[in-house]
Amino acid sequence: MSLDIKSIDIKPKRETFGHVERRIGEGKMASRYEEATFDIQPVANFHYRPYANPEFELYDQNKTSIKMEDWYKFLDPRQYHYASYVTARAKQQEVAEQNFVFVEKRNMLDVMPEDIKQEILNYVLPLRHYEWGANMNNLQLCSEGYGAAITNAYMFHAEDRLGNAQYLTRIGLLLSENEPAVLDDAKDKWLNDEAWQPLRKAMEDSFVLQDWFELHIAQNVIFDGFIHPLVFDKYEQELNQRGGTAQTMMTEFITSWNDESAKWIDMTVKVAALERDENKDLLNQWCKKYIDIASNAALAIAKNIVNNPEETVNNIQEQLVARLNKNGLNL
Predict the structure, then answer these.
(1) Using an 8 Å Cβ cutoff, are 297 and 199 in contact?
(2) pTM over 0.70
(3) 84 near 32, Cβ under 8 Å?
(4) Considering only Cβ atoms within 10 Å of each terminal Cβ, which end of the chain, N or C, has fewer?
């Protein structure tokens, strides 16, 4: 006796959830990102206003001066939801681990000049406190922002900043042969060294900003637009010429992460500016305000780490302004 097993295709009654289907069109299959993002923002039944901010509802569109017809226009071009995010970061971490193993296996830190090691401890390791501040700011953005399309991305970005801080800590410990006192010294530099005080003040002032989109512009657009290119691009180029190649290998995760994050950050600026002229005017005002603050903070650090500090910072500012203008602003 023989059995003839046949398969039949059963067409599902619908391809996705109703609220997603209403956005992408009937009969279309949604991506996992769309299903994990569209219309999951709570919008009703907020029984009590929060004690900490009673003039607003728990989730309130009016917590920023930016106005949007649809807050889900801020879709992440990377399409990060939990699974895609952790998969991408796991692959990047594997590469970073291989770089650290290569540096240690080839004894690259043994041949690094001592003055360069001390420079890195003085002017790179304190950035772990900057990254911690960026983590706090992005958690605030996730808490106060509106629309899961952008608040989800803020949560992922906040976790990335902790990762950056941990990599910087690891570099400091490697350079010092696991001497934890270098972490206390870096904290002292962050709190008391003259070169770090403009950036520290900018970060502490950002902690009390009320408008969450203004905080996004200050931290993720402007501050990062100066600090990361200065330390992890311009400075490391000069370190390579002086025998500090190992530093570039150990910060590869941070540089590749910054390039990737810039695509999402640029999109947020472009979408908000295109929505209405009032948004664009507000973004121009905020960017001009924080460019002045960030350029002064970057210059104070640049004077200690690059040969032509003013030229370097001006170059970084020109590139940032060109990038923002390309995304719809007039700076």
Answers:
(1) yes
(2) yes
(3) yes
(4) N
